[in-house]
Amino acid sequence: MIINYVKIIDRLERVRKVLALSMMALVVVTGVFYFKADVLVQLLTKPLGQGGLIFLSPMEGFMTKMKVAFFSAFIVCLPLILWQSIRHAIPILRPAHKRIVYWVIPVATLLFAAGILFGYMIIIPITLKFLLDTGQQYMVAALSANLYFSFVIMLILVMGAVFELPLIMVVLALVKIISSKTLKGKRKVAYLGIVIVTALLTPTPDVFTLVAASLPVLGLYELSILLISSYEKVSARKKQSLVQESDIMHEWGG
Predict the structure, then answer these.
(1) Which of 96, 103, 123, 161 is deepest in the core (most CB within 10 A)?
(2) Of the ranges 27-31, 120-124, 175-179, which one carries the lowest mean pLDDT score?
């Protein structure tokens, strides 16, 4: 009982250290990015074109810069936060799961960065153009800076998360939760879901735009199937090889 209590205290202490380090990193990087917030603001307003932003309260300008700095810092610090969290969780993981952990973070970081880039270059310009063109038919756009950056940041983070699809599926396959057979069987349903989500993120009646925005995500789904199928084949060969070696050893022993 005392040993279990000590283990719980030790794990809570590890969680506290991770949270403290993560918060410290976020605060420091946010402070650095705040002084470069003008560059980040210009970058995020570039898809808006010639349209300007307004702020509706004395604090909105300051809070908008803080929001942009904080979320930029969060994106930069995310690999560190993940690494610290997983590093402290490694001692309680099974050996097979530990091997998975070491390549998850760099792959997750690359996929997240690709999703952010895709969201910034493709999704945001398409979405903004459609929404503003629709609204300006009967209204004059006067965009609040706070609401605009909340909208843009949300889209960027969503696309970053969407691009983690192959990694999530491969990890689920490694821990035997899903298989390539299951993914192939649910392909039509998955395609429909991907198109629906993409249509919600890019609310445009242009079919070409919808297809162009959906194709990368559909490609990620197929990539997931390919990776999982390859892993299953390698695993099957290893198992077959072990069985054959066992049979040979059994015959020699007999």
Answers:
(1) 123
(2) 175-179
Question: Residue 224 class from Cβ within 10 Å (0-12 exposed, 13-18 middle, 19+ buried)?
Answer: buried
- Residue 166 CA to residue 217 CA, distance in Å, equals 10
Q: Please report where in the chains the tokens 């879901």 appear, as a residue.
A: 193
Query: Which is it for the CA torsion 130, 72, 114, 175, positive or negative?
Result: negative
The CA distance from 94 to 88, in Å, is 13
CA torsion through residues 21, 24, 28, 31, sign: positive
Instruction: Look at residues 110, 130, 123 and name the one whose alpha carbon lies nearest to residue 152.
Output: 123
Q: Full-prediction pTM beyond 0.90?
A: no
Confirm if 58 and 18 have CB atoms less than 8 A apart: no
